[in-house]
Design a protein that fits this description.
242 residues, ten-stranded mixed sheet, alpha/beta
Length: 242
C-alpha cells in the first residue's frame, strides 16, 4: 500500500511539471459536418490542416452532426469548428470567430428542365421543396416554407425531383466547386442564380484566445497568396474522382 501511494504521488507531481522542450503539444480536435456530401468539408479541413502545420500544431477532425458538435465545442470537449456562419460566433460568447472566411457555400436550386420558371425565396412558399437532411443552413432558410421534404442522400433527392414528388431540390455547393456531371443532371437544370451565398469561418473555443491572432494572420496570408484556393481545388478533385 505504501509503495502504491509513493507511485501515485510521483504521477501527480509529474502532471504538475512543465513540459520539456522536446514535448509535443496535443493535437487540436476540430469538428466537421457529418452531413456534408460536397467538397466543402474536405476543402475546409485541407486549409486548416495546412495553417496549423505552419504554426507548428497538429489538428484532427471528427465528422459530427452540426448541432451536436456545437454543443460539444461550447462545453470544451472540442477545440473548434472548421466551417461555421459568422452569426454563430456572435451568438455564442464562449466561441471565438476566426475572421477569415476559408470557404463560401452557395444554396443552389435544381428543377426539372420543364419545371418552374425563375425562383427566389418568396416563390418557394408555393412549391414542394426537397433538401438533404441535416443541412442546418438550408433548414434555417426554409423555416417558413410549408411544404418541404428531407432526403437522406443526393441520389434520393434527385430521384424525388425526377419522379415529381418535389418541385425543386436545394443543395449546398462550395463556391468554385465543379458543377455536377452531365449524367447526374440528365433531365434536370440548375437555376441560373444561387438562392443564397454565405461565407464560412473557423471557430475556436475561448481557451484558445492566444492562438486567435496567429491563426487569423496565417489564414489571411494563405488566402492572399492563393494557397487556400489551390488546397480547396485539390480537395474537391479528390471528392469528385471516381
Amino acid at each position: 500500500m505504501e509503495l502504491w501511494r509513493r507511485r501515485e504521488a510521483v504521477v501527480m507531481i509529474a502532471g504538475w511539471l512543465p513540459l520539456g522542450p522536446s514535448a509535443q503539444p496535443q493535437p487540436l480536435h476540430f469538428a466537421t459536418d457529418a452531413n456534408d456530401q460536397s467538397g466543402l468539408a474536405p476543402g475546409g479541413r485541407a486549409v486548416l490542416s495546412r495553417a496549423f502545420q505552419r504554426l507548428g500544431l497538429a489538428v484532427s477532425f471528427e465528422a459530427l452532426p452540426l448541432r451536436r458538435s456545437l454543443r460539444m465545442t461550447e462545453q470544451g470537449q472540442l477545440d473548434g469548428e472548421a466551417l461555421r456562419i459568422r452569426a454563430l460566433g456572435q451568438d455564442h460568447p464562449g466561441l471565438l470567430l476566426v475572421p477569415v472566411a476559408i470557404a463560401t457555400v452557395k444554396v443552389i436550386g435544381l428543377v426539372r428542365q420543364r419545371g418552374p420558371g425563375p425562383v427566389d425565396w418568396a416563390a418557394l412558399a408555393q412549391l414542394r421543396v426537397g433538401y438533404p437532411r441535416g443541412i442546418v443552413l438550408i433548414e434555417n432558410l426554409l423555416a417558413s416554407v410549408p411544404r418541404k421534404l428531407e432526403a437522406t442522400t443526393h441520389a434520393d433527392l434527385l430521384r424525388l425531383l425526377r419522379t415529381e414528388a418535389i418541385d425543386i431540390a436545394l443543395l449546398t455547393q462550395a463556391a468554385g466547386e465543379p458543377e455536377p456531371d452531365a449524367e447526374q443532371m440528365s433531365g434536370l437544370a440548375t437555376l441560373p442564380t444561387p438562392l443564397s451565398v454565405t461565407p464560412l469561418y473557423p471557430l475556436l473555443h475561448q481557451r484558445h484566445r492566444e492562438l486567435l491572432p496567429r491563426l487569423t494572420a496565417m489564414l489571411q496570408q494563405m488566402e492572399d497568396s492563393g494557397e487556400s484556393a489551390r488546397l480547396r481545388s485539390v480537395a474537391w478533385g479528390g471528392v469528385l474522382s471516381p
